[in-house]
Amino acid sequence: MDLAALLDRIADDVAPEIGRGAVAGYIPALARVEPGRFGMAVAEVDGALHGVGDWQHPFSVQSMSKVFTLALALARGDGVWARVGREPSGDPFNSLVQLEHEDGIPRNPFINAGALVVTDELARHGDAAEALLAFVRQESGRQEIAVEPEVAASEAAHADRNRALAYFMASYGNMRHPVPSVLDQYVRQCSIAMSCADVARSALFLARHGLRNDGSRLLGLSAAKRINAVMLTCGTYDAAGEFAYRVGLPGKSGVGGGIVAIVPGRCAVCVWSPGLDARGNSVAGVAALDRFTTLTGWSIF
Predict the structure, then answer these.
(1) What is the pLDDT of residue 125?
(2) Consecutive H or E run containing 221
(3) pTM score
(4) What are the structural domain ranges in the chain?
(5) pLDDT in tens, 211-240
(6) Chain centroid to CA 281: how far?
(7) CA-based nearest residue to 182, from 69, 96, 60
(8) For the domain with range 3-296, which CATH number is right: 3.50.50.60, 3.20.20.20, 3.40.710.10, 3.40.190.10?
(9) Which of 151, 157, 179, 153 has its CA nearest to residue 167?
(10) What is the pLDDT at residue 101?
(11) In angstroms, what is the C-alpha Rg of the chain?
(12) What pLDDT is recorded for position 94?
């Protein structure tokens, strides 16, 4: 299959969707991103890399980082599952409602409350954001990947909801470290800037059933399968059912406009377009992945 030509076709097909939706206005630094951007990259398990559009332009990964921190936490043991569930939330990603009904245990690791717990768990072994940076730099082969200071400062200044989530969980004994320290690490991990190419290459371990790009094993087969499963059911906020219906792949979105998706045994895909729908997912990104699975016939179903 000529993936380079296929990506060109997808870019043409989804052109009417590019610029639709709204950028993430609740983080001022993200609100200034040009909504007409679009990039897409495919990293194959044999190392081949293909891209179209702004596929090498860095953007704020935001919640896509949650896939990597979960993997790094699970690589050190599965204790995180005693602190966070694996069920779809059905509520917005920053909702406080379920935490009160469920005694401070977040519904899954990809909503904000769950991701804060994962960051807290990873912090047992050192700074979680630094661990994530070291991982994506090695997997992508780009040592220049870094936190965007402007985005981090902007996000930290508007983190009242995340602060409330963390303190609420702490009141139930579900935080191990001081809330300000966990929030600092969480904000920095979300504010890392990567391109579609960087993200796709960094996520290949999930397509390779736990193997990193150097051939070493990050996760066992079972753990890699389970991360893909949670991505499928929980990775696109409260639109996970619609995403599974349209795309049919494990995926994780971020309010920076990125979506990473996995075709087990074949490739990792990342698409970026900043315009978001009402549930926080990239409008053009979902459309592009829908076309990708339609044209390739690759899905997990």
Answers:
(1) 96
(2) helix 221-234
(3) 0.96
(4) 3-296
(5) 999 999 999 999 999 999 999 999 998 899
(6) 11
(7) 69
(8) 3.40.710.10
(9) 179
(10) 83
(11) 17
(12) 62
Determine which helix (DSSP H) or strand (DSSP E) holds 286, and give its type and residue range.
helix 283-296
Q: Where would I find the beta strands (DSSP E) of the chain?
A: 39-44, 49-53, 59-60, 146-147, 192-194, 251-253, 258-263, 267-272
Q: Are 206 and 228 in contact (CB under 8 A)?
A: yes
At residue 230, the pLDDT reads 98
Nearest partner of 276 among 29, 62, 35, judged by Cα: 35
255 known ligand binder: yes
What is the C-alpha to C-alpha distance for residues 273 and 259, in angstroms, rounded to an integer? 9
Q: Of the listed 66, 179, 195, 263, which one is catalytic? A: 66
Residues lower than pLDDT 50 in the chain: none
To the query of whether residue 63 is one of the catalytic residues in this protein, the response is yes
Say which of 33, 136, 151, 186 is annotated catalytic. 186
Residue 94 annotated as binding?
A: no
| pLDDT tens profile 103-149 | 999 999 999 999 999 999 999 999 999 999 999 999 999 999 999 99
How distant is the alpha carbon of residue 255 from its chain centre?
9
User: CA 255, CA 267: separation in Å to the nearest integer?
Assistant: 23
Could you confirm whether 299 is annotated as catalytic?
no
